Amino acid sequence: MSPPTTTPNTQSPQTRSGQPLVVGIGNPYRRDDGVGPAVIRELAHQVSPHVCLREHSGEGASLMAMWEGHPRVILVDAVVSGTAPGTVHRLEAHRQPLPASLFHRSTHAFSLAEAVELSRALGTLPPEVLIYGVEGREFDHGMGLSPPVAAAVETVVRRILADLRRHG
């Protein structure tokens, strides 16, 4: 497992606590699984320096530690639900449990959905957790997003920017 990657406007989570956190989950060497990091790279030059951007492999315990102290967390990950590739799902995880079937492609034993639900049970879930799941098509080894997933990146970026503006 590789460590979390920082982008140009990031600092360590400890120095950014209290600020919005956007995490792109995935592995860019597994085609569409790299959609989360692709969104973070696009956001890097469009968000305020008061927004913490991170790339992450998706391991659940590490995610829980990363979002600690952040009042607003936005997570972006590839999903497989049977909808058309490139479909964007937006979930308000702070309001309702996540459908575990949506995030079942994790290569880790402790996935995003399990991290959110454990955090909820422990009372440590941030006050606001938004999750953007982008329906993937190709998860084999290699680089580059499939065309429908690549096209969805800009949609997710626009929606995240709107979410960030809506809440100051």
Describe what this molecule looks like in 3D.
Helices cover 31% and strands 20% of the residues. With 168 residues, it is α/β, with parallel strands linked by helices. The protein has one domain (5-166): HybD-like (Rossmann fold, 3-Layer(aba) Sandwich), CATH 3.40.50.1450. A six-stranded mixed beta sheet has the order 1-3-2-4-6-5. Helix 2 (35-43) packs across helix 5 (147-166) and helix 3 crosses helix 4. The radius of gyration is 14 Å and the shape is globular.
Short description:
This protein is of the alpha/beta class and 168 residues long.
The number of distinct β-strands equals 6
Uncertain stretches: 1-15
Number of domains: 1
CATH topology: Rossmann fold
Question: CATH superfamily name?
Answer: HybD-like
Number of helices: 5
Strand order of the largest sheet: 1-3-2-4-6-5
Which percent range fits the helix content? 25-40%
Q: What does the main sheet amount to?
A: 6 strands, mixed
In what range is the share of β-strand residues? 15-25%
The shape, in one word, is globular
Structure class: alpha/beta
What is the end-to-end distance? 34 Å
Query: Averaging pLDDT over every residue, what do you get?
Result: 86
Classified by CATH, the class is: Alpha Beta
Order of helices and strands: EHEHEHEEHEH
What is the CA-atom radius of gyration, in angstroms?
14 Å
